[in-house]
Amino acid sequence: MTRLSDIVKHWTPAQWDALIMQYLPANVLTDKFWRGKPGPCPICLGHDRFTYDNKRGRGDWVCRQCNDGHPMAGDGLELIRRSSGMSFAELARELEGNRPPRALPQAARPASPKAAMSDEAKAKRIQRVWNTATPLVPGDAAMRYLAARVPGLVAPRPSALRLATMDYRHDDKVMGRYPTIVAQLTLPDGRMATVHRTALDPVKPAKAYIVSADGEILPAKRNDVSALPIAGGAVRLMPPRDGVLGVAEGLETAYAAHMLFGVPTWYCLNRVLLNRFVVPQGLGIHTLHIFADFDAIDPKTRKSPGMADALALGKRVRNEGLTVHVHRPMVRGTDFCDQWLTANRLQGIAGERAVCA
């Protein structure tokens, strides 16, 4: 049987659109769907959390909560497989020997504004967001948030994080204006690929709580457009030290791991990008510490997603000749930020008892 990847190898983006239209239900294939706007997810069935952007021309999509409340993304084949329950082998048998799908008429496939934005325009937008944000200073909203999430944090002030006041837009509507941490995601060659935004509560040292008109809790953390493929990159919170570097999924986890292990740590935004992290050349890095989220077991794969991606990264980097250490929290279902907070609470209780004694 012909491999599925060979069948679709030369398809155009419009042909991927046509394939998607053959398999997804009509209630998903709305005008918002084709315009790259959030809508219902054909996999987890959630509302206003799924976006079809076809940004690589392979039926590309992302759902903000498909992976046990975490983002999941893939190409059109993965979308069809997950939404229909078909295996890749079954899908290959259906497509093998058939003519590639005809491109949809423009009237049936409205142009996506995201797809229409040129890479140059995306790069200018990203640079504009970054330039309008300001470096972190003691006592600002970002520093208060980090101090609350990682108590006792001591680390170099990050040049890769800035603070801005930004509108939060959802479905073409402004949901509010929030202090926002702007994180610079840097590729292995040093170029900025995108910025990641974390909306903060205007008063409390916490993430913003944002609810859509239909009651969905919207994510406080979001990527902006990407001018370049972001796989391999990371947010460089601090410089490597003596050839040693750590990587983690999220901002708070990276700082907590730094406090627990004393390792300068970067973060990759999520577990999929952690898996794809590439150790930059020219920085003298010879040892990589990988700080995994100890996720619950996925009943379908029988694996902990965070651990599986961390171990895959470790295997690849070890094969490249580097020394690798993979770490996980002590309790399943937690990350290193949880572990740091627990340790601080226990120390606080012990201190109170000592004072009382």
What does the model show?
With 357 residues, the protein is of the alpha+beta class. It has two domains: 4-116, no CATH class; 122-340, no CATH class. 32% of the residues lie in helices and 21% in strands. The protein has twelve helices and 15 strands. The chain has helices at residues 4-7, 13-23, 31-34, 76-84, 88-95, 113-116, 119-132, 141-149, 251-261, 271-275, 305-319, 336-356; strands at residues 50-52, 61-67, 70-74, 134-135, 161-170, 173-186, 192-199, 210-211, 217-218, 221-223, 234-235, 244-248, 265-267, 287-291, 323-327. The strands form four sheets. Strands 4, 5, 6, 7, 10 and 11 form a six-stranded antiparallel sheet that branches. Strands 13-12-14-15 form a four-stranded parallel sheet, with helices on both faces. Strands 1-2-3 form a three-stranded antiparallel sheet. A hairpin with a 5-residue loop joins strand 8 (210-211) and strand 9 (217-218). Helix 2 packs parallel to helix 4 (76-84) and helix 9 (251-261) crosses helix 12 (336-356). The radius of gyration is 22 Å and the shape is globular. It starts with a helix and ends with a helix. Residues 104-115 have low confidence and may be disordered.
Mean pLDDT: 85
Computed structural class: alpha+beta
Order of helices and strands: HHHEEEHHHHEHEEEEEEEEHEHEHEH
Tally of extended strands? Answer: 15
The major β-sheet equals:
6 strands, antiparallel
For the record, give the distance between the C-alpha atoms at the N and C termini, rounded to a whole number: 75 Å
The portion of residues assigned to helices is 25-40%
Taking pLDDT < 50 over at least 5 consecutive residues as the criterion, the unreliable ranges are 104-115
Count of helix runs: 12
What's the shape?
globular
